[in-house]
Amino acid sequence: MNAKPKTMEEHLDYLLSMIRLKLFFLARWQHTHPKEDFSFTLRERVDIFRKTDLNPEALTPVGKYFELPQWRRLEDRLRELPYYPKHSWCSIRSMREHLRTL
Question: With contact defined as beta carbons under 8 Å apart, do 34 and 88 qualify?
């Protein structure tokens, strides 16, 4: 097998796709579990922090860095993401446009 290492562009595309999937899960979970705190869901059920440059420990952080001002700002902006209950092309396009503003 002559597999080539992925390019940086391919890796970034993968990360963006994974984050989109995690954000969809987050929004759906919040919609179906309205009593669960958004911050708890984001921090404990969705693995986005490790995918950001706010993670100083690389692959598997031991510490909790959720009190960093940069993380708090990101968390506040993620809280504003709309929930699109139907998986239509229109809602995916709208979500993609919203994600570009983050």
Answer: no
b/e for 77-94, b at 16 or more Cβ within 10 A?
ebeebeebeeeeeeeeee
User: Alpha-carbon distance 34 to 76, whole Å?
Assistant: 17
46: nearest Cα among 72, 65, 19: 19
Locate 99 and state its tokens.
């994600």
Supply the pTM of this predicted model: 0.70
Residues 2-60: tens digit of each pLDDT: 788 889 999 888 888 888 889 888 988 888 899 999 999 998 898 888 888 887 776 66
For CA atoms 60, 13, 27, 56, give the dihedral sign: positive
Rounded Cα distance, 54 and 86, in Å:
32
Task: Report residue 96's pLDDT band, with 50, 70 and 90 as the boundaries.
Answer: low
Taking a C-beta distance cutoff of 8 angstroms, is the pair 89, 64 a contact?
Answer: no
